[in-house]
Design a protein that fits this description.
By secondary structure, the chain is an alpha/beta fold. It has 15 helices and ten strands. Helix 11 (about 215-225) links the parallel strand 4 and strand 5 (about 230-235). It starts with 8 loop residues before the first helix and ends with a strand.
Amino acid sequence: NDRPYAASSFLSVAISRVFGSAISGKSSERPELAKTAIPLEATISVLPCRGGENFLRRLFEPLGYEVSTIRHALDPKFAEWGESPYFTVTLKRTAPLYELLTHLYVLIPVLDDEKHYWVGTDEVDKLIKKGVGWLETHPEKEIITLRYLKHRRSLARIALAGLLGEEELEQEEPEATGEDAIEEKLSLNEQRLKTVHSLLREMGAKRIIDLGCGEGKLLRHLLRDKHIEMVTGLDVSIQALERAKDRLQIENLRPKDQARIQLLHGSLMYRDKRLEGFDAATVVEVIEHLDQPRLAAFERVLFEFARPTIIVLTTPNREYNVKFENLPTGKFRHKDHRFEWTRGEFQAWAKSIAEKYGYIVEFKSLGEEDEKLGAPTQIGVFTR
């Protein structure tokens, strides 16, 4: 992972420890100097900006900073990998030192969209204390609060109410980014979830595992279906699993329903006994994030070792990309996509995998279908 190399919540902790008195804005020897605005410049060499440069500017420019950025490629040798989320960022502003340190302390983990420690109610108090005087008037206060508290919406509501002095506050949804933003007008994600759920129900699946479950959107659909006995989600990202736990509100479920859901931390690249014994596995918009060696490993993990009776797999149809007005020509729908297949490429892959591992595959389309280009999403339903 990028933790040893990128600015993150580790840096925020370091700022608070090394510059403890400076960030407090107090000085016993020179109290007037601590409050004095002085010309300041801060450079962060490798800052993850998950949301892009525009999001970075939306955070710092309303606070009066002059923002300069240099974006880094994932690897200069492999231009097709595209741009990375990492920037060298320089901030300039005439302000008291404690304001700059406070803004960095709060906004670095917000841009990274991650924290290396558990977030509880003490983080709410910390954010309210650090946010007084600037966060309550910031145009992006909702998304700052939500990301700072690791997308725990209940905590975010408490924090915003504390900042704004309100007893109750409606939580706004963060704006769609990346693939969701491109496909937003078509509501493709919701269509995928409903279609996958419907297919599983038609085939009578009772024990289902969602591989690459992310934040648990499909899990929530499946858990509501009382015909399904067991719902399992697996993801390599601890952060995503924590969001899934919050989304599903597992702690508030009835004991009977708590027993029907489990979240597993694991990789799709390695054989795992926990993946065996399921009626069905879902793989929704996952394989396009795998490069060729990892895709080959994933094929064996799922089709050879886990071997569920049913596999429902979805992936973008590259031919349809020309229909998205906000997607530049030749670009994939998400910067992390390693490939996007045409219908012919997907069907050739799926048929070869089915034949190799003893499955039968049927193809379906999802979304508004174009006569020449097909539908935006293609589905493979594998059975044995």
